[in-house]
UniProtKB/TrEMBL annotation:
This is ABC transporter ATP-binding protein. The lineage of its organism: Bacteria, Bacillati, Bacillota, Clostridia, Eubacteriales. GO terms for molecular function: ATP binding; ATP hydrolysis activity; L-isoleucine transmembrane transporter activity; L-phenylalanine transmembrane transporter activity; L-valine transmembrane transporter activity. GO terms for biological process: D-alanine transmembrane transport; L-alanine transport; L-isoleucine import across plasma membrane; L-valine import across plasma membrane. Residues 10-269 form the ABC transporter domain. It comes from Flintibacter faecis. The keyword ATP-binding applies. InterPro entries: AAA+_ATPase, ABC_AA/LPS_Transport, ABC_transporter-like_ATP-bd, BCA_ABC_TP_C, P-loop_NTPase. Keywords: ATP-binding, Nucleotide-binding, Transport. SMART domains: AAA (SM00382).
Length: 277
C-alpha cells in the first residue's frame, strides 16, 4: 500500500496506487522574483487534474519545472516514485512525462505522420548501421512505427491526414496533432497547456470527450492548464488553484467553485470576462 499524503486530492480509484506525480515543497525564483513557492501536489495514476489561476500565476512555470525546462530552486518532483532531480528534458520524457505547449510547436514542413513518428522515436530501437544501410531490422521498425502512428492518429480520426503537411492543417487539427505527438512518447503523465485555446465551443466539447477517452484508453494521468472553466469543471477530478505562485486551493470542481478565495482571486473575474462576450 502506497501512503497518499494528506494534501492529496486524488480520486478514490487511484488511492493505494503509486501516484504518477508528487511535488513536494517545489519552488523556483527568477532573480528576485519567486515565481512558484511551496507547490505541493499529488496526481493519481489515472486522474484528470486541472491547474488554474490568473495570468502570470505560475502555471506554465510549474509545467516547465515538471518537464525539466527549468530546474527547481527548491523542492522535489517524484515521477512514478522516482526523483527527477538532475534529469534533462529528454530523460524526463523517457521517464514518462510529455506535454503540449500553449503556442503550438509542430514541425510544420513535415507530414502529420512524421510529426507523430518523432514522438515515437524514443521507443524505436535498432543499431545505427541498420538505419544507414536500410537493413531488414530498420524496415521492420519503420513498419511498426507507421502502424503505431496510424493507430495514434485514429484517436482523433486523423488517419486520412497522415500525408498532409502539419503546417497546412486547420488550427484545431494542429492542436490535436500536438496531443497525438505527445502521446506517441508513451507517457504516464500527459501535460496539456491550454488545449482549448482558440477552439470554438463545439471543438472544445469534442476535445473534452477526447481527453477522457485518452485517459480511459491509455490508463494515464492528464494534467491540464486551462482558462475555459466549462472544460475544467466538466472533466477535471482534482483542481489546483495558483495565485502569485502559491496554491490557494485544491479540491473537486464543486469545492473550487464554492471557495471564496478562488472566487476573489480568479473565478469572479472569469465570470465578468465571460459576460462581456
Ligand atoms: N524564464 C523566466 N524568467 C523570468 N521570469 C519568468 C520566467 N518564466 C516565467 N517568469 C515569470 O514567472 C511568473 C509566472 O509566469 P507563468 O508564465 O508561469 O504564468 P501563467 O500562470 O502560466 O500565466 P498565463 O496564464 O498568462 O500563461 C510571471 O511573473 C513570469 O513573468
Amino acid at each position: 500500500m502506497v501512503p497518499v499524503p494528506s494534501h492529496s486530492i486524488v480520486p478514490e480509484r487511484d488511492l493505494g496506487k503509486m501516484p504518477v506525480l508528487e511535488c513536494q515543497h517545489l519552488g523556483i525564483d527568477f532573480g528576485g522574483l519567486t515565481a512558484v513557492n511551496e507547490f505541493n501536489l499529488t496526481v493519481g495514476q489515472t486522474e484528470i487534474a486541472g491547474l488554474i489561476g490568473p495570468n502570470g500565476a505560475g502555471k506554465t512555470t510549474v509545467f516547465n519545472l515538471l518537464t525539466k525546462v527549468y530546474q527547481p530552486t527548491r523542492g522535489t518532483i517524484l515521477l512514478n516514485g522516482k526523483d527527477t532531480h538532475g534529469m534533462s528534458i529528454a530523460q524526463a520524457n523517457r521517464a514518462g512525462i510529455a506535454r503540449t505547449f500553449q503556442n503550438i510547436r509542430l514541425f510544420n514542413n513535415l507530414s502529420v505522420e512524421d510529426n507523430v513518428k518523432i514522438g515515437l522515436h524514443n521507443q524505436v530501437r535498432y543499431p545505427m548501421w541498420d538505419g544507414v544501410f536500410r537493413l531488414p531490422k530498420f524496415w521492420k521498425q519503420e513498419k511498426l512505427a507507421h502502424e503505431s502512428a496510424m493507430e495514434l492518429l485514429s484517436i482523433f480520426d486523423m488517419q486520412d491526414l497522415a500525408g498532409h503537411e502539419a503546417g497546412s492543417l486547420p488550427y484545431g487539427a494542429q492542436r490535436r496533432l500536438e496531443i497525438v505527438r505527445a502521446l506517441a512518447t508513451n507517457p504516464s503523465l500527459l501535460l496539456l497547456d491550454e488545449p482549448a485555446a482558440g477552439m470554438n465551443p463545439s471543438e472544445t466539447a469534442e476535445l473534452m470527450e477526447n481527453i477522457v477517452k485518452i485517459r480511459d484508453t491509455f490508463h494515464i494521468a492528464i494534467m491540464l492548464i486551462e482558462h475555459d472553466m466549462n472544460l475544467v469543471m466538466g472533466i477535471c477530478e482534482g483542481i489546483c488553484v495558483l495565485n502569485f505562485g502559491q496554491i490557494i486551493a485544491k479540491g473537486t470542481a464543486e469545492e473550487i467553485q464554492a471557495n471564496p478565495k478562488v472566487i476573489e482571486a480568479y473565478l469572479g473575474s472569469q465570470k465578468k470576462e465571460g459576460s462581456k462576450g
